[in-house]
Write a structure and sequence with these properties.
377 residues, alpha+beta, Jelly Rolls, Collagenase (Catalytic Domain), 2 domains, 5-stranded antiparallel β-sheet, 15% helix, binds zinc ion, Peptidase M11 gametolysin domain-containing protein, signal
Length: 377
């Protein structure tokens, strides 16, 4: 029996408006109230394809089907082989006491976990999948088992390849804790040969907390190869790492990209661009005069451009990371003469054609999934 889990609400619910809260500002009385809205060139929201499930109830999932490399996450257990620990059969994810089937709650946990994983790896030319045949058809992969048998996680460093078993596992609590499946991404990072983010001393790792935000208690940001934040924004970092020849840094994104390029010379390791830089894209109709769109900054240089015809008046532009994405955005609104006339927040623009340009703010790892929206009331 197949069950269908509709994701229709996901794009709305998962959208977090980052860094654009101007609600405390007093409104200019002359422009109070939002007006006309986008005319003509918004498009209807396309149907979101539903996720299908195996007969056991496991989500059949792919985040980026055309990618040469896959990240295979086994929530149903499997064969774990480790050069140091030996070989084991590990159980999968199981909350309901029935290890061979997945009920609705377990399915929802797994789908959410997969979506987090898709955000963590959104900028790479990789496909997060639960389908073994898809894994085996890709050029190379990393595999991990999410298990009830152990807490924490473990990975054989550099286990990226074409092994028919997993060389990494992760305790299942990462699915239901504030960690938000970051630990799965962390162990996969090790299989791509990454070391820990933190403080090193005489070539030995000894401390996680090395990033400035943590010293004042702000754990909103956590590096994936570090000890984790609070799962609000998790990203790849350029870490101090004395064993590396590259200026004493571990350039985590480039190390992953090199692995991808090593099995596919046609890929540069970054995700293929979802909104090509020199093409026009329209926003989806939000049914109240404005529009929105979700996209991915798939490399540090990616620029996504959306166009709209404005009826004139006041609106609010919001743009920010979706879910656990580490994207930090630089957003500009330009008129027909290519002059910047607005940015995030409230604006009042005369009728005319405008474009929104979205790029990373330039911080390391500040790319990935985002959503942009024009709100007219
Ligand atoms: Zn680790």
């Amino acid at each position: 029996m197949k069950k269908i889990y509709a994701l229709c609400l996901f794009t709305f619910l998962a959208f977090s408006f980052n860094g654009c809260d101007s609600s405390k500002e007093k409104l200019d009385p002359e422009i109070e109230g939002y007006t006309k809205g986008i005319i003509n060139d918004v498009i209807d929201v396309p149907e979101v394809s539903a996720i299908e499930y195996s007969t056991a109830g496991l989500p059949i999932y792919q985040s980026n089907p055309d990618a040469p490399v896959s990240i295979y996450v086994a929530y149903d257990g499997g064969d774990y082989r480790s050069s140091s620990q030996g070989n084991f059969i590990l159980s999968g994810y199981n909350r309901n006491g029935s290890p061979d089937t997945f009920d609705e709650q377990e399915q929802a946990d797994i789908v959410r976990s997969l979506e987090y994983m898709a955000h963590y790896f959104a900028m790479f030319d990789v496909n997060v999948t639960t389908i073994e045949e898809v894994r085996d058809a890709s050029k190379a992969w990393s595999s991990i088992i999410v298990t009830e048998d152990h807490s924490g996680g473990r990975a054989n460093k550099g286990a990226f390849g074409t092994y028919p078993w997993s060389k990494a596992y992760c305790g299942s609590s990462t699915l239901t804790s504030s960690d938000k499946s970051r630990r799965i991404a962390h162990e996969i990072g090790h299989t791509f040969s990454l070391e820990h983010s933190g403080i090193w001393n005489n070539g030995e790792f000894y401390k996680w907390e090395d990033w400035p935000q943590w010293s004042n208690g702000d754990r909103a940001y956590g590096t994936i190869m570090g000890g984790g934040g609070k799962g609000q924004r998790n990203g790849w970092s350029n870490d101090a790492y004395p064993k590396d020849s590259d200026g004493g840094k571990q350039n985590t994104m480039n190390i992953i990209r090199q692995k991808i390029r090593s099995v596919d010379s046609k890929s540069n390791g970054w995700r293929k661009d979802d909104f090509l830089d020199n093409e026009k894209f329209y926003l989806y109709d939000n049914k109240s005069g404005g529009g929105y769109r979700q996209g991915i900054l798939g490399s540090p240089d990616d620029v996504d451009v959306f166009t709209f015809a404005w009826g004139g008046g006041k609106f609010k532009l919001s743009a920010g990371a979706v879910s656990v994405s580490a994207a930090l955005l630089d957003v500009g609104v330009f008129n027909k003469d290519n002059q910047q006339v607005a940015t995030e927040g409230e604006s009042n623009l005369p009728a005319g054609d405008y474009t929104i340009e979205i790029r990373s703010n330039g911080d390391y790892g500040a790319i990935g999934t985002y959503q942009v929206a024009i709100l007219t009331n």
